[in-house]
Amino acid sequence: xxxxxxxxxxxxxxxxxxxxxxxxxxxxxxxxxxxxxxxxxxxxxxxxxxxxxxxxxxxxxxxxxxxxxxxxxxxxxxxxxxxxxxxxxxxxxxxxxxxxxxxxxxxxxxxxxxxxxxxxxxxxxxxxxxxxxxxxxxxxxxxxxxxxxxxxxxxxxxxxxxxxxxxxxxxxxxxxxxxxxxxxxxxxxxxxxxxxxxxxxxxxxxxxxxxxxxxxxxxxxxxxxxxxxxxxxxxxxxxxxxxxxxxxxxxxxxxxxxxxxxxxxxxxxx
Length: 270
Description:
Radius of gyration: 19 Å
Strand order of the largest sheet: 3-2-1-4-6-5
Number of helices: 12
CATH class of the largest domain: Alpha Beta
CATH topology of the largest domain: Rossmann fold
Largest sheet: 6 strands, mixed
Number of strands: 6
């Protein structure tokens, strides 16, 4: 398979084939927003193929433990095996390794690790291996993205299938835009950035102030003020370069520099 395969070529057909060949499927979800980073289509595929599924709520260090516990109980109540971890801090990853082995139906066995961009799929693999194995990158579409199928040995009899690219985005607006492409590739980064800002401020009214020292809550004014603070202006009319500010907001969201999370109560009320 071509090692320079484009990210978007991770098709549903390829994911279905990968899941079919695996014994256990690990779906990596961003615990800050499980509603928009779970793939119901993947979960249906796993169920239809009668495979074991573990939903891993990653980045648990970014939410209070009480919130992580609530999300775990909610998703377990839907009939899934669930764990929460922080792959970058190696919190819970040893327990996850043991849990995967406990649900594997046979040995040797292979595990397919799937997830949306920036949920931490490759970081989970690296944490389980205990050393760097799968390439990682903080920004969608940038160098370091998984490009081809790899079978990674975790320990004797325990293998992981690292799928090329990522799950095709189902998360809706603006998730499908901000996770599906590199910020530099977005023709219009302003609209999704403004929608992202609105979502962030809904759940943490101080998030933008804490991250950038900007007090206004108007998304467009936030972009304008951030551009001014960073010295980003159009050359011709000296107006603030809000496209650059928008890309920065999206990048910082991926890099966990803007602190917010969706409370479990949001799901219970929906």
